[in-house]
Amino acid sequence: MKRKIGAIIAGMLLALGIFIILIPWIAQKKTKDTQDNLQAEYAKIVEENSQSVEEVKEPEPQQEMDYTVADFSNEEPEVTNNKEVQNILDRQQILGKISCEKIDLEFVVVEGAKRDNIRAAIGHITGTAGMGGKGNCVLAGHRGGYYGEFFKNIDLLENGDKVILTDVYNREYIYEVYKQFVVEPTELWVCDKIEGEDTLTLLSCEDNGKRRIIVRCRLVEHDS
Known about the structure:
Largest sheet: 8 strands, mixed, barrel
Radius of gyration: 20 Å
Number of helices: 3
Strand content: 25-35%
Structural class: alpha+beta
Helix content: 25-40%
Shape: globular
Distance between the termini: 79 Å
Number of strands: 8
């Protein structure tokens, strides 16, 4: 009897161990599925805009307001169902996409940098300049863990590398990397506009979430 109980307990512990090991894989797969759906939705929006007779909106300039701090919490996730994933998708406002050939980067950008935003995609920090807009456009993304590797390799970017933002009207804004540094999470000045420059700031975690890595780029070319 004791052997039987011991075998049952051992089996339960083994199953639990396998489940714990699979959690990161499950979470990352759901993130990939979400991003794939967002990519398809982005392509649909671009196609609809190309056929629309409505006036094309200009990129949003920097706003005078408080910034929403990116929520990089990376706690162990609950295993969500497809309905919850769809709910997360439905809450996203797609702004465009970001790409950089050097580090194999191509992801959808959504408005906001709260938890659901940057678990689904790369998030635009509300209050900063829009994609290609006047001021400092700040984008936040995870570098690993349970919720995606969107900005996994931004530490490999060097001065002169090109990062491209493409909006929902298929207009390209080409930025050139010119600076990289690390700051504390409370240093929100990195979201401020830089006098005389239209910039793109990529923001992610460093030192296991204790600090923030910053890659600064300046706008060098854009579609008229």
